[in-house]
Amino acid sequence: MVQDIDGLLRQAMTIRGAQCASLIDYTTGLPVDTLGAVLGISPEATAAGTAELMHVMLDTAAFASAPGGDELEDIVVTASSGYHVFQCVPARFDSRLVLHVWLDRHSGNVALTRRRLKLLVEELVG
């Protein structure tokens, strides 16, 4: 059971192929916490890029929430060396958080990762 941010990131890093897991406040563009690392990429740079991506997705009419309460759940970005899976974290307070997991392309499984991250976030927020 996930009880805190450290537990969330530790569990995310047990996903096959996970290279790095970060919880990011995309209103500020700052990492709340990070576990693991990708050579040559700082957590701050990753958080800033994540914030930009989230703002584009949420502020663009084509990607914005549809009427009827439809909300963005996750985003998957495919790169030549891996996958970036971004799972939105609902909060009861005024915060915009996203869980970002960087997966190795050869050993990671996007579908399983999406499912696992959704369950981990649900455990965290209750």
Would you kindly provide a written description of the structure presented here, covering whatever features stand out?
By secondary structure, the protein is an alpha+beta fold. It has one domain (about 5-125): Beta-Lactamase, CATH 3.30.450.30. Helices cover about 35% and strands about 30% of the residues. The chain is built from three helices and five strands. The protein has helices at about 5-10, 45-60, 110-125, and strands spanning about 20-25, 30-35, 75-80, 80-90, 95-105. A five-stranded antiparallel β-sheet has the order 2-1-5-4-3. The longest helix is centred in the middle third of the chain and has 17 residues, at about 45-60. It is globular and about 35 Å long.
Secondary structure layout plus pairing:
Blueprint: H1 5-12, E1 18-25, E2 30-36, H2 43-59, E3 74-78, E4 82-89, E5 97-104, H3 110-125
Antiparallel strand pairs: 1-2, 1-5, 3-4, 4-5
Report the CATH C-level class: Alpha Beta
**CATH superfamily heading:** Dynein light chain 2a, cytoplasmic
Count of discrete alpha- or pi-helical segments spanning 4 or more residues: 3
Strand order of the largest sheet: 2-1-5-4-3
Strand segment count: 5
The ordered string of helix (H) and strand (E) elements is HEEHEEEH
- Reported CATH architecture: 2-Layer Sandwich
Spans of at least 5 consecutive residues whose pLDDT stays below 50 are none
Shape field: globular
Structural class: alpha+beta
